[in-house]
Q: What sequence folds into this?
């Protein structure tokens, strides 16, 4: 049975086993209730792009709100013969008590900044690591890829066609959801309209055409069944020699007498640039200049961009496998790291150090802001501060590149928007779900706030995520005073 959300099945045990062994260790060591802070962030933008899109928050909220260990879960863990009975009792009576902040779905995001922050008892904050990562990583990856493809289409409609190529039914559903956030106008995934209101569309496959004695008969039968939603797949045999001519004949002989207007033809193979130009000429010559041309067949942002450069008169694109799997780079490398623990009335910063510079974490309980130019409305930079720092947007702020501190810029008269919004407070949900269409609109507005240079597919301008001077000093002091 396909289940549309996490509330109808218990996913609490979907976690890496080490989360359980650590939580057991925290509790039996007497530190399970010590308050800790974890950040989720990512280090690299897939495909060397300029930004990513944050998605998956709604499913993460559903998971966190429904955390509970069943009797079967407890018995399974007991059978491992490694867990303390006090830990199993703790899980049996589990009550989520953490605070959670996150970016708003649809927000552009950049490497190194906290996109989900969890603060709470260390045993609990550790247990939710896997689901935070897999939920946000997956949907953010697909939303990012979809947004690239939609931008390549330059205002033309992009339809998500990927269900049959997704790695599972969950990936099909939530991938299509993420693709819609990224900008797709519709989906071939029927369940998405039922559960999320995303328009589900579709007409015929080649098998429909093959089932009839002739292509003309197949088109005519379909047109009679769906006179006001008639899109014909014209490439089963030969697009320009039979497919388009037979479609025109059906438009003339079947739809026109019914007073119906044909909607489109679809091309799913061949040289789409050449075939679409020839098809457009045939349709225009027959008086069907308003009939749209839909293209599909293993498309991505680069193929779509090239088709438009070549003048292909395509009105909309159906994109499947390369979007639903983010085929060019199918991994979003988000990580979840401990950054602070509470002690003596303050937060003690924690840092992970690596010989790989990019893997050195930014310590401390933090806030994240986006600075916007008041005149242009464009994003200037993201600014990460310690949790108790106050920003006055009317006073100058010095921005500097954390990896090249001599690169400085002083900004003032900007608008500072907090990026991390409260989702749970002491385990109680404060997040209010939004209609998916509103999330998509917000995403489009936020992407539009980025400079075009950041949105290039190749060699985009680097958008800066800057640390406050205080936070940078904390990080440098910790690095300089490490006892190795």
A:
């Amino acid at each position: 049975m396909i289940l549309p959300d996490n509330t109808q099945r218990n996913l609490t045990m979907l976690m890496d086993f080490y989360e359980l062994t650590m939580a057991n260790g925290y509790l039996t060591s007497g530190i399970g209730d010590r308050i800790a802070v974890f950040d989720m962030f990512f280090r690299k933008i897939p495909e060397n792009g300029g930004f990513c899109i944050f998605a998956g928050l709604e499913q993460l909220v559903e998971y966190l709100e429904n955390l509970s260990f069943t009797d079967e879960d407890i018995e399974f863990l007991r059978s491992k013969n490694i867990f303390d009975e006090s830990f199993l009792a703790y899980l049996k009576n589990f009550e989520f008590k953490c605070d959670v902040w996150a970016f708003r779905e649809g927000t552009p995001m950049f490497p190194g900044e906290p996109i989900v922050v969890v603060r709470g008892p260390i045993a609990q904050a550790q247990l939710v690591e896997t689901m935070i990562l897999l939920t946000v990583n997956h949907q953010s990856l697909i939303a990012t890829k979809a947004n690239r493809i939609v931008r390549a289409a330059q205002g033309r409609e992009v339809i998500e066609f990927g269900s049959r190529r997704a790695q599972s039914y969950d990936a099909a559903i939530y991938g299509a959801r993420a693709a819609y956030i990224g900008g797709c106008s519709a989906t071939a995934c029927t369940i998405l309209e039922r559960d999320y209101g995303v328009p589900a569309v579709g007409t015929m496959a080649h098998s429909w055409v093959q089932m009839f004695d002739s292509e003309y008969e197949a088109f005519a039968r379909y047109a009679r069944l769906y006179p006001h939603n008639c899109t014909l797949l014209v490439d089963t045999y030969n697009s320009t020699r039979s497919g388009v001519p037979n479609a025109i004949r059906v438009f003339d002989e079947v739809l026109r007498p019914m007073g119906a207007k044909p909607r489109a033809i679809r091309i799913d193979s061949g040289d789409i640039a050449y075939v679409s130009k020839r098809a457009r000429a045939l349709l225009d010559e027959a008086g069907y200049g308003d009939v749209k041309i839909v293209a599909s067949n293993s498309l991505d942002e680069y193929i779509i961009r090239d088709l438009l450069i070549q003048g292909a008169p395509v009105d909309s694109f159906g994109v499947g496998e390369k979007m639903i799997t983010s085929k060019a780079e199918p991994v979003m490398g988000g990580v979840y790291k401990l950054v602070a623990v509470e002690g003596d009335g303050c937060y003690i910063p924690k840092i992970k150090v690596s010989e790989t510079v990019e893997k050195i974490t930014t310590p401390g309980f933090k806030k994240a802001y986006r600075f916007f130019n008041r005149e242009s409305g464009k994003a200037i930079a993201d600014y990460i501060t310690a949790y108790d720092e106050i920003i006055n947007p009317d006073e100058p702020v010095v921005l500097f590149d954390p990896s090249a501190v001599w690169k400085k810029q002083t900004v003032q008269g900007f608008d500072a928007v907090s990026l991390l919004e409260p989702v749970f407070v002491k385990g109680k949900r404060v997040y209010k779900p939004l209609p998916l269409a509103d999330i998509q609109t917000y995403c489009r507005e936020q992407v539009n706030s980025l400079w075009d240079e950041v949105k290039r597919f190749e060699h985009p301008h680097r958008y800066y995520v800057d640390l406050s001077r205080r936070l940078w000093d904390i990080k440098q002091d910790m690095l300089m005073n490490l006892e190795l």
Notes: The chain has a mean pLDDT of 96. The longest helix spans residues 129-152. Residues 345 and 378 are 39 Å apart (CA to CA). The chain has two domains: 6-142+330-480, 146-324.
